[in-house]
Structure prediction request, 147 residues.
Amino acid sequence: MSGVIVLIAPLVAFLAITWVWLIVAAPLLPAAPAGILYALGSRICHQISERSFHLGVAQLPVCARCLDIYAGFAIGLAVAVSATSRAGSRSQTPWGLTPRAGVAIGALPTAITVIMEWVGLWHTSNLARAIAGAPLGVAVALVVMAG
Prediction:
């Protein structure tokens, strides 16, 4: 089974990185592939313009928080795959945390920004939303690799 993981993990990391690049490149793509990306984005994200990064005048297909959750996931997978291939064994959840605890800790920055917005204490910027989303993506990637 570990041989299958060794083969599949780099492919999943490649696909995650490709997904992030496609999201960022969507405004520059021809209409048909861009339309598919925006349609996919509408199924997984609210796509609120004020909460999204823009490339020039064109909004990306997902919001800033979603973009960095995906980017964090891609980076986390790439780092975990690299570390696993060097160490020759499967990754463990960092600091011996259970998967649930690892994801909960990774989700804290996102949860804090969401709660602060909901209660009206802080109107976060897109950069803050993105920075808060990345740890959640990394945590999920590390749990996936540890599993």
